[in-house]
Backbone:
């Protein structure tokens, strides 16, 4: 079975590094980390991930904007997106069954088990 | 003639002394004698031949003229009493007869019956000649006979009494005088008449004149005419002063009356012109006056009210008894009252709120006659006031929310910042622990395993604190959620759809899919869009098109609220979600454009707008830390632009 391709876009370099190690450590995923929101679309087009983990609050470009760009592009519009954010409450995410504004959501800090669970739930 | 006495020319005498001379001298006979007493000539009337001879002895002639040159005397002869006149003859150069006479000239007239009758006729009385002295009757008898009687002695040439003559004049005038003197009554009457005439004259000058002046001045109503009379001390002076003071008082009175009338007319005008209902009631509360305005206010005209209605007849049934009782208590206290609010029933059944003020009318003794006052129809005002009150409380509430929101916003921002800055490292730590657990799996129960669990527990504890902080910051505006603007627009539109269909309004939506999320209060944003949409529709009363756009944009322009200032909502270069609602209606003038977001600014008539819509709208947008403004061209249309922050901040 092919490894699932996961793209993580987050300007927290350390976070993407450790998440990539953890996910790839499971042996099930091929992970690419991108720390610039503005490069999100280009990298997605090139890497063609099965799912994008997207941080909402990034300095150069908001996650929602990246999501908007992905959704607006024919090539990328069907790639599932899971938001990662530090600013919503756990409770909110739970209340909305992990979906806010139509997107699945993960509140930071998140453990690897929970992360894999959400990925698996949303990946096609 | 003197020459004749020297020439003794008888012929000359016959030619020059004919019967005509007798007439000239009014005599019956003429004798001429020379100085020697010789008869020179004589002539007599016919029938007087017996007088040819001078009736006295010729020798007496010298004696007759001895003392006087001109003689007049009587002689009794056989034919009767003879009146003789005689003179000595002198030359023409001696008119004073001082020289020796040349002869004697004598004439005589017989006082016969005929002559005496002539005389009687001449004097208008009777003449009696007698040689004896007759008695003259007593004055009484004469008076009775209306006659005057007097006598004269007729002397001879020696001064002797030749005869007496008696003259009796019967006088008409005497009769008059006699009557006059006799009839004292007549005289008295005449006197009376004279007195009356005198009095009349007196009255004319001293009574009629002042009376005429007085009557004139009264008739002309002009006290000026009395000026002269006033100075007099007479009763007329008193009257004149009285009348003048009367005129003066009357003038004052007339002036007062005129002023009063003017004031009354003014009052009437004011009463009719003001929107206030002016009224008077008697002490029982029955209307005695009502200005016509009442018909506009209560639907009854003054005729239906005056003398027919009591003030409490109009009060609504729920308050009638209690207000009547209160009012009558005020009446008993005779106190004025001010701006007393009371609900009344209009003739058509509507409730009219009146604000009543009144003051008591008292007589001299202080007894209550009634009340006088004015009512103002404040129904509209009360409605507006109530609306205002509601709007005010709404505003207060919004403001309260806003302040709260601002505070919480600050806390929220802090919490978000803290959350971001703390949770990210927490995320790294947690992932790091996960990594280590995998790489170097500690034996169960080992120290390493214990430490790993400790690390994980600490991360969770820190996360819990962050969550609590976020919980607190969102406690009040828990409605602020991540929302998709397009779905809010859609639900707003759904709420006005029916109405727009009715108003012939077409809505074109040009919304961008996949817009960034906004952190928003869905209900409040719906309220914003509905407000703006309704304003747009109202600007096109005949129907028209509204375009709704939504898009995301990097803010470039400098506008109020977008810039580099600390307090600005947006920074240049910041990305935001923008909603535009455009209409093609009346548009807004440049001047009004500055005011449309001000509370209570409205150009719509009462009932259709209170001017709070856009003010509340702006408050809601500000609560979202967003911006709202309008672009408009009068007659072309209006575009309302709303800039919203993208979520997660
Ligand atoms: N789309 C529009 N076109 C023309 N005028 C507008 C529009 N929107 C608002 N206005 C003007 O702004 C005023 C204030 O509006 P608003 O605060 O909503 O109060 P209201 O609608 O009660 O008058 C309106 O009375 C109107 O003159």
Residues:
């Amino acid at each position: 079975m092919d490894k699932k391709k996961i793209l993580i876009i987050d300007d927290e370099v350390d976070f993407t590094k450790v998440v990539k190690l953890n996910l790839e450590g499971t042996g099930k995923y091929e992970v690419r980390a991108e720390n610039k929101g503005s490069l999100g679309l280009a990298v997605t087009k090139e890497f063609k991930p099965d799912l994008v983990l997207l941080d909402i609050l990034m300095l150069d470009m908001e996650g929602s904007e990246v999501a908007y760009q992905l959704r607006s592009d024919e090539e990328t519009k069907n790639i599932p997106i899971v938001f990662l954010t530090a600013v919503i409450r756990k409770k909110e995410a739970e209340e909305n069954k992990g979906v806010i504004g139509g997107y699945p959501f993960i509140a930071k800090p998140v453990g690897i088990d929970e992360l894999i669970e959400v990925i698996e739930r949303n990946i096609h | 003639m003197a020459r004749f006495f020297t020439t003794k020319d008888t012929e000359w005498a016959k030619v020059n002394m004919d019967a005509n001379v007798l007439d000239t001298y009014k005599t019956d006979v003429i004798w001429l004698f020379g100085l020697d007493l010789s008869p020179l000539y004589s002539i007599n009337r016919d029938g007087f031949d017996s007088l040819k001879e001078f009736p006295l002895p010729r020798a007496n002639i010298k004696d007759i003229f001895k003392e006087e040159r001109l003689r007049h005397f009587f002689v009794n002869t056989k034919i009767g009493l003879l009146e003789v006149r005689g003179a000595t003859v002198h030359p023409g150069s001696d008119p004073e007869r001082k020289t020796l006479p040349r002869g004697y000239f004598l004439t005589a007239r017989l006082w016969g019956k005929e002559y005496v009758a002539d005389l009687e006729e001449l004097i208008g009385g009777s003449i009696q000649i007698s040689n004896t002295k007759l008695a003259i009757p007593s004055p009484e008898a004469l008076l009775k006979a209306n006659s005057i009687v007097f006598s004269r002695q007729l002397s001879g040439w020696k001064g002797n009494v030749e005869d007496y003559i008696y003259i009796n004049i019967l006088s008409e005038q005497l009769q008059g005088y006699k009557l006059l003197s006799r009839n004292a009554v007549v005289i008295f009457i005449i006197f009376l008449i004279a007195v009356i005439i005198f009095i009349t004259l007196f009255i004319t000058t001293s009574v009629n004149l002042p009376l005429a002046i007085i009557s004139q001045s009264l008739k002309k109503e002009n006290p000026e005419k009395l000026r002269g009379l006033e100075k007099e001390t007479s009763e007329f002076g008193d009257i004149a002063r009285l009348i003048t003071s009367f005129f003066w008082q009357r003038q004052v009175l007339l002036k007062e009356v005129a002023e009063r009338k003017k004031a009354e007319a003014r009052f009437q005008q004011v009463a009719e012109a003001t929107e206030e209902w002016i009224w008077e009631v008697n002490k029982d509360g029955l209307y005695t006056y009502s200005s016509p305005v009442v018909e506009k206010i209560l639907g009854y005209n003054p005729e239906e009210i005056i003398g027919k209605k009591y003030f409490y007849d109009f009060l609504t049934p729920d308050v009638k008894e209690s207000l009547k009782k209160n009012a009558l208590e005020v009446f008993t206290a005779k106190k004025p009252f001010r701006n007393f609010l009371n609900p009344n029933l209009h003739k058509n059944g509507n409730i009219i709120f009146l604000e009543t003020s009144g003051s008591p009318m008292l007589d001299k003794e202080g007894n209550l006659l009634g009340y006088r006052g004015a009512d103002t129809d404040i129904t509209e005002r009360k409605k507006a006031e109530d609306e205002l009150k509601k709007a005010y409380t709404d505003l207060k509430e919004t403001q309260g929310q806003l302040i709260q929101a601002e505070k919480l916003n600050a806390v929220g921002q802090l919490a978000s910042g803290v959350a971001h800055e703390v949770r990210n490292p927490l995320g790294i730590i947690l992932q790091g622990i996960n990594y280590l657990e995998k790489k170097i799996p500690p034996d169960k129960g080992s120290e390493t395993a214990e430490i790993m669990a400790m690390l994980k527990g600490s991360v969770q504890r820190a996360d819990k604190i962050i969550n609590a902080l976020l919980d607190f910051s969102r406690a009040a505006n828990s409605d602020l959620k991540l929302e998709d603007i397009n779905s809010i627009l859609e639900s707003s539109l759904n709420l006005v759809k029916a109405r727009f269909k009715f108003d012939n309004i077409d809505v074109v939506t040009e919304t961008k899919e996949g817009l960034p999320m906004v952190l928003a209060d869905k209900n409040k944003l719906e309220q914003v869009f509905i407000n703006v949409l309704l304003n747009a529709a109202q600007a096109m009363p005949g129907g028209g098109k509204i375009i709704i756009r939504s898009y995301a944009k990097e803010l470039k322009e400098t506008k109020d609220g977008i810039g580099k200032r600390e307090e600005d909502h947006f920074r240049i270069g910041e990305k935001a979600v923008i909603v535009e609602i455009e209409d093609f209606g009346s548009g807004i003038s440049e001047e009004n454009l500055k005011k449309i977001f001000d509370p209570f600014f409205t150009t719509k008539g009462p009932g259709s707008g209170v001017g709070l819509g856009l003010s509340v709208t702006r408050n809601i947008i500000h609560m979202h830390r967003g911006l709202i403004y309008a672009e408009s061209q009068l007659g072309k249309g209006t575009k309302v632009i709303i800039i919203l922050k993208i979520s997660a901040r």
Summary: The first helix of chain B runs from residue 2 to 7.
